[in-house]
């Protein structure tokens, strides 16, 4: 820690007073709100009376790539001058605002609808239909728009206009490939799951690196972050600071735009309730809003039910809940160590208890809705193209859990050898369709038509032609900043699946 200065030499662009908040009790949420809209090299002044900030803030700066330029101390009052990114040294700062009083995190009152809308009709999804899992690589300009919007430099209307253009390109690629069901490619999302943190009431998106002061062993946490293939400073994590509410939709606007582009059935992917609960339950943040993980989970279920009802009422053919963390529970042993599997950072308990918890949460979300229009997807990790860094294990430890899910379709990773033999899944009930992973989204090469046909025929022999759908093992860009493939390769892979489907429909008279 540098020594305090008598006074700051440079003038901040923005100043705010954090009062006696410490970094593990809301101060970082306020810092993030103030620093995000700044340009790189601009200065933020943080005023504080909390002693621990002297040691925590330099660590935060180091992890996030920001720079502590100077700090002063006058009795209990401290002032820290932080540059967004590296400080150039002599740039004149535009003084945009100042705050002399402590600012609290504003809680939004939660409104619970009296009733949920009924599902509207939607096109049926035929056997052997081809579709993506969800995500699609974003154009470079869309990535820029995502970051500018999250950091407050791009207004909502401009962001949505850019996203509309990106979705049109994504849907066009899927239609050229010949898919039967389209998605919007999750173009508006920074990742497949954390995006809800920027939409739900009393939740805020913060970079993974901002979590440093919240963990028990900051040094070990920092080392793990640096080992991630996913850029930890870019991937954001939802931090809950009050009761969760859904005053605006999570994905209804995505569905509406896609349905204006095509008559094909549309699938919408949402993060599952177990994934969100594991992601959002961070000690020292969540426990100030919720007494336990279970009380948080109850609100997660509620907001997902509200969103599911709205999507089905607007004509979504299928709503898919992503629960990749099930594989982390099944294959990482009984350790309670934190995991970065697809963004699930909180600790977990006994594997069987966790699987039962996940089962009950998803069944609570879908209760009362048409099973044929709800699905679940799981894989073994999609944050890296290095197969050796993802989970390995067949579906045997998960069969009971999967069989007990009240969803009509399971979209499963089956192309990669890490997933084991497909025959293990013969124990699944006949009421569940199987979305069979027929191409590996991590590989740059496009699978041959013969290989896809061979695996697809094997699936039909195991499950029956009426129960089989075709898909990649996972999305092509689960994390916006870390796509596992290009849009050109993604389109080519889906085209091969569509060609195989056409041949098999003729062969099996479908």
Q: Your description of this structure?
A:
It is a single chain. With about 500 residues, the protein is α/β, with parallel strands linked by helices. The chain folds into two domains: about 1-105, TusA-like domain (Translation Initiation Factor IF3), CATH 3.30.110; about 140-505, TIM Barrel (Alpha-Beta Barrel), CATH 3.20.20. Helix content is about 30%, strand content about 15%. The chain contains 13 helices and twelve strands. β11, α12 and β12 (about 470) form a beta-alpha-beta unit. The radius of gyration is 24 Å and the shape is elongated. Residues about 95-100 and about 335-340 have low confidence and may be disordered.
Q: Count the helices. How many?
A: 13
Which percent range describes the beta-strand content? 5-15%
Q: Give the low-confidence spans.
A: 97-102, 334-339
In the CATH hierarchy, what is the architecture of the largest domain at level 2?
Answer: Alpha-Beta Barrel
List keywords for this structure.
14% strand; six-stranded parallel beta sheet; alpha/beta; four-stranded mixed beta sheet; TIM Barrel; elongated; 510 residues
Brief overview, please?
By secondary structure, the chain is of the alpha/beta class.
Topology, please?
Blueprint: E1 14-17, H1 27-35, E2 43-48, H2 53-64, E3 67-74, E4 77-83, H3 140-150, H4 156-177, E5 201-207, H5 218-227, E6 236-245, H6 252-259, E7 267-271, H7 273-280, H8 293-313, E8 318-322, H9 325-331, H10 351-366, E9 374-378, H11 399-403, E10 409-412, E11 433-439, H12 449-463, E12 468-472, H13 487-507
